[in-house]
Amino acid sequence: MRQQIAQLGNGAHALAIQLLGNTDDAADAVHDAFVKVLGKPMSYNAANGPFAPWFLRVVRNHCIDMMRRRRPGGADVGKLADHRPGPEASLEISQRDRGLQLALAKLTADQRQIIVLRDYMDLSYADIADVLEVAPGTVMSRLHRARMALKEELIQDV
């Protein structure tokens, strides 16, 4: 299980950054999820599907919990904060990817999340459906809408 989690580390961290908008919080979230999973190894049941989507769902849920704790009254998951890159994040973004990262930052958290899961982490529609706990058809329609929104942002920046 440790080896599987280690292989998912970069992808889990990328997902957490997109949700939390801060590299330090993202590292904390992935670490906490790692500790949580290792502390309860029996919580994973292979009969319910592959390990990767399950672990990413644990990371995603922990990020949502962190956002709820940060905000008085809890976070509305459908209206997560718009995380434009700050100075620290801007330094990390290469010149080649800067335009894409800025366009992604203008999308909603849900749109960014689904693009990261599919296009950056290369998860299948079924795996994304497992992570987000929605039907595969919903994943396809959300991904299409997210890509169209990203396209519009990229066109506006030209």
Q: What are the main properties of this structure?
A:
158 residues; mainly alpha; globular; Butyryl-CoA Dehydrogenase, subunit A, domain 3; 8 helices
What does this structure look like?
- The N and C termini lie far apart (45 Å).
- The chain has 8 helices and no strands.
- It is mainly α and 158 residues long.
- Mean pLDDT is 78; it is low at 74-80.
- It has one domain (2-157): Butyryl-CoA Dehydrogenase, subunit A, domain 3, CATH 1.20.140.
- Helix 1 runs parallel beside helix 3 (51-70).
- The protein is globular.
Which range best describes the helical content: under 10%, 10-25%, 25-40%, 40-55%, 55-70% or over 70%?
over 70%
**Whole-number tally of structural domains:** 1
Number of extended strands: 0
Largest sheet, in brief, is:
none
Overall residue-averaged pLDDT value: 78
- Report the structural category: mainly alpha
Number of helices: 8
Question: What is the CATH topology descriptor?
Answer: Butyryl-CoA Dehydrogenase, subunit A, domain 3
Low-confidence stretches: 74-80
